[in-house]
Amino acid sequence: MPDFLVVGAAKSGTTAIHHYLGQHPQIFLPAQKETNFFAFVGEEVRFEGPGDEEMARVTITDFEEYGSLFAGASEDQVSGEVSPWYMYFERSAANINTLIPGVRLIFVLRNPVERAFSSYLHVVRHGREKLGFREGILAEEERISRGWEPIWHYLSAGKYAEQMEPFLKLFGREQVFIRLYDDLRNDPEEFLSDLYGFLGVDRGFRADLSLRPNVTGVPRNRVVGHLLFRPNPFKEIARKMIPQGVRYPISQELGRRMVVKPSLDPSLRRELVAYYKPEILSLQELIGRDLSHWFEA
What is the pTM of this model? Predict the structure, then answer.
């Protein structure tokens, strides 16, 4: 069982954190990010939205299969995994507490307005979202009721205070590391040094920060976007023939070059800031951080 979990929030730099932590010689991470194990342990996983079968396919629900992911960790390494949807599912906290009560938990929180827009751009990038952002927000409740996976829950996934409460009730503050996406973006070296200290590994290690994984945006070209971001035979061939350590940085760099990030409509941004204001105020009190910059519209 892992020593630590990055539990959320989704679209808050967790792919980059997985990439950076994986470079540290005293940290062991399984190759697979987002096992979703503690959210669905022992359950049958099924979602009904377009392209949702991929999340169901990669989710691990079997205890033995999950444990085998960490078999490669050496005695002088701490092991962990990154599954940012744990935070969104309340049952994750209870499942984690039952199986690994002494685990260390890592939360990275992003301005919920920016997080929602990034989630929307993610499914646009993969050719799954056909609606505009406002229309997608209006369709959210229906999509949730129809069993679409959490990536479509643009607004609901940003209600951090209520999502964190079950974790904070079950785990002592000494087991919890809480930072903002702003911290990672503004000073990644300090962010990682603090995180290494929390995990009890050498905090002087310097990760290669030149690659910023999982940049979100809209493909500049539909055909190239389909080849890079959607399941297709060419991707399967590359996955089998090119080692992951070579394939990953190439794919991420191509992805960065082939997407452009559109701007969020200012009027919609103001509406969303107003929508999230009570939630942000609650979160500000809960974590003891000044979040007033999140109110900027």
Answer: 0.86
